[in-house]
Amino acid sequence: MRIVVLVSGTGSNLQAVLDAAADGSLPVTIAAVGADRPGTGGVERAAAAGIETFVVDLKQYADRGEWNRDLARAVAAHEPAYVVSSGFMRIVDQHFLDAFPDRYLNTHPALLPSFPGAHGVRDALAYGVKVTGCTVMIADAGVDTGPILAQAAVPVLPEDTEETLHERIKVEERRLLIETLAGLAASSAQGGPS
Ligand code: GAR
Fold first, then answer.
1. Is 78 a catalytic site residue?
2. Could you tell which of 8, 10, 13, 121 is best to mutate to test the pocket of ligand 1, judged by most ligand atoms within 8 Å of the CB?
3. Which atom of ligand 1 is nearest to the CA of 42?
4. 47/59 Cα distance (integer angstroms)
5. 21 Cα to the center of ligand 1, angstroms
6. Among residues 149, 183, 181, 190, which one has the least CA distance to residue 2?
7. How many whole angstroms separate alpha carbon 167 and alpha carbon 154?
8. DSSP for 4-60?
9. Cβ(1)–Cβ(188) below 8 Å
10. Which of 124, 130, 151, 168 is least surrounded by CB atoms within 10 angstroms?
11. Region of residue 163 (phi > 0: left; psi between -120 and 50: alpha; otherwise: beta)
C-alpha cells in the first residue's frame, strides 16, 4: 500500500512509520514525504531514509486555493492509496480532499472532539483534564474533525509540562498510527481500497 506523508515539523512520528516500513513490520511503501515549508526535520528524516521528498511552500503563494491545487498535484503524482498528515499543521481545502476522498488520515495529540487545533496538548493541560490522549481520523475540511478511526488514552501526571505530556502522547500516537496503517494495508490487500 503506497502512502504519502505530509509534515510541518520535526517528524518524530514520521520516523516511527519510516522505521516500521523499513523493518518490514508495516507493509506500506512510503512513496514520498512532503512539507508546506522548507527546512523541516520531517523532510530531512525522509531524505536520510532515501525517500523522495517535495516542498509546496505556502509562503510562496498569494492564493491559498492555488497552493491547495499544487499540493494535491504533488501528492497525486506519487499515486498514494492514503495520504497521512503527520504533524502537517495546515488545513487543506475541499479541492484537496476531493482528490483523495476518505484517503486523508490525520493524527491529533488529544481525545477529539476535545481540544482540536494547533495546541491540543497545551489546551488539555490548561483545562486540567486528568486523562488526555491521541486520535487518528479521516480528515475533513474542519479543524481536527472527521470520522475517528482510533484513539488511545494517556493519563496526565501532576508534574507534567506540555513537553513531557506531549512526549508520552506521541509514544501512543506512533503506535496507533502504525496500527491503523497496518489495518488499512491488510484490508487493501484483501481487495479493499488500494
Ligand atoms: C503530533 O503530536 C501530531 O499529532 C501533532 O503534531 C505533532 C507532530 O509531531 N499534530 C497536531 O497537533 C495537528 N492538529 P512530530 O513532528 O514530532 O511527528
1. no
2. 13
3. 16
4. 22
5. 19
6. 181
7. 11
8. EEEESS--HHHHHHHHHHHTTSS--EEEEEEESSTT-HHHHHHHHTT--EEE--GGG
9. yes
10. 130
11. alpha
Cβ–Cβ < 8 Å for 74, 57 = no
Supply 193's cell numbers: 481500497
Q: Fill in the DSSP letter of residue 151.
A: E
pTM to 2 decimals? 0.96
Q: How many CB atoms lie within 10 A of CB 74?
A: 16
Ligand 1 atom nearest to CA at 169 = 2
The string of pLDDT tens digits covering residues 36-83 is 999 999 999 999 999 999 999 999 999 999 999 999 999 999 999 999
Place of cell 482540536: 116
Q: State in Å: Cα 11 to ligand 1 middle.
A: 8
pLDDT tens sequence across 78-128: 999 999 999 999 999 999 999 999 999 999 999 999 999 999 999 999 999
Q: Which residues line ligand 1 (CB under 6 A)?
A: 9-14, 42, 86-87, 107-109, 118, 120, 144, 170, 173
